[in-house]
Amino acid sequence: MVETDVLIVGGGPGGSSCAHELRKHGMDAIILDKEAFPRTKLCAGWITPGVLESLQIRPEEYPRGIVTFDEIHGEYFGLKKQRPLTWNTTQYSIRRYEFDHWMLERSGAEFIVHPVKEIRKDGNHYVVDDLYRARYLIGAGGTHCPVARQIFADLNPRSPAYQVGALEQEFAYQWKDERCILWFGEHGLPGYSWYVPKAGGYINIGIGGFSEHMKNSRITLRQHWDLLTRKMEDLGLIKDHEWKPKGHTYFVHQKAKVTQSDNAFLVGDSAGLATCDLAEGIGPAIESGIRTARAIATNSRVDLSDIGRYSALGPGWKASVFGSILDRKGTFFRDRVYARDFRKKEDRYLAAAGS
Ligand SMILES: Cc1cc2nc3c(=O)[nH]c(=O)nc-3n(C[C@H](O)[C@H](O)[C@H](O)COP(=O)(O)OP(=O)(O)OC[C@H]3O[C@@H](n4cnc5c(N)ncnc54)[C@H](O)[C@@H]3O)c2cc1C
User: Fold this and answer.
1) Is the pLDDT of residue 318 over 90?
2) Separation of 269 CA from ligand 1 center, angstroms?
3) Residues 6+ away with beta carbon under 8 Å from 270
4) Which domain holds residue 49?
């Protein structure tokens, strides 16, 4: 049996940031991941300045490819009109293939490729698959994390109301248009689609929407994907590409959260911490990993309550004041923003397309 202070299930941003912080406090951690790194992770790889702040690095210090956007471009497709949007803001894109590997190496933690199956308690220790034993256990295994399923299923139930589904493809492409572009609610999609250029000649195209509305939609996510790829060709953004998207679901932040039970903890997507408006989860995963490590090292209770729940509000007091107002209607973005008039917009598109 391998013994350590802390066992971390999952080597994504949540797990590796936790391991990195534990090491700073003189604690050892082993990270178990079902995949060898570097590994592909479905993600647009859009990161905010807050992510770099949490990692305590400046963009020029990031040793892999990074693109800086000084503006984000978008279009909102309302029922009556289409509105162009431009935000003057500094944002970044990275490739998760590189970013997660870099974070894992930076953590200095021992890394073992092992798909975690069974977790049991042995006194005040946790035992994983009768092979690994630790006083503390971190669930950082994303949406299907075994720690979340086996220890937190009743404590932290994840409501389907907060689930998003996404389709995406990242591939080598000599992009010419260097803008990051988002399209909100096109053809009644209860979500948004994106075009995100990456460093080193890569591009990420994707589409995501709230699962519950998608279930009742007359246009499936796959059909929305086909519309998006046609649009890429029509706009001349991508030419002659063979499209092969992959799908994934995850959860955005819901109000009541239990992320600690005895000495077991959840961080990142396993806790469902992505933001409620843009479904960004990298920043919350890193922040929750760091805070959980600090709580363990200082023997205090973990508090994730003020982790940013809305990308648009950023950090600080405004985020907490306006965030609490938005929280009163937990599914505000899902129902009032993304799904607003989505059926009528769908019907209009289908009528125009003759189906
Ligand atoms: C299409 C798409 C686009 C997105 N775009 C963005 C974006 O642009 N910006 C943003 O901030 N967020 C984005 N997100 C969300 C973001 O990817 C996640 O919130 C983030 O990866 C969460 O990090 P994590 O460490 O919690 O989990 P993950 O990054 O999912 O890492 C979990 C790790 O656990 C491992 N694992 C799982 N099960 C087991 C097991 N049984 N045993 C061992 N290991 C296991 C996995 O192999 C994986 O390496 C996007 C998500 C999707 C699906």
Assistant:
1) no
2) 6
3) 10, 14, 139, 140, 141, 142, 143, 145, 147, 148
4) 2-345
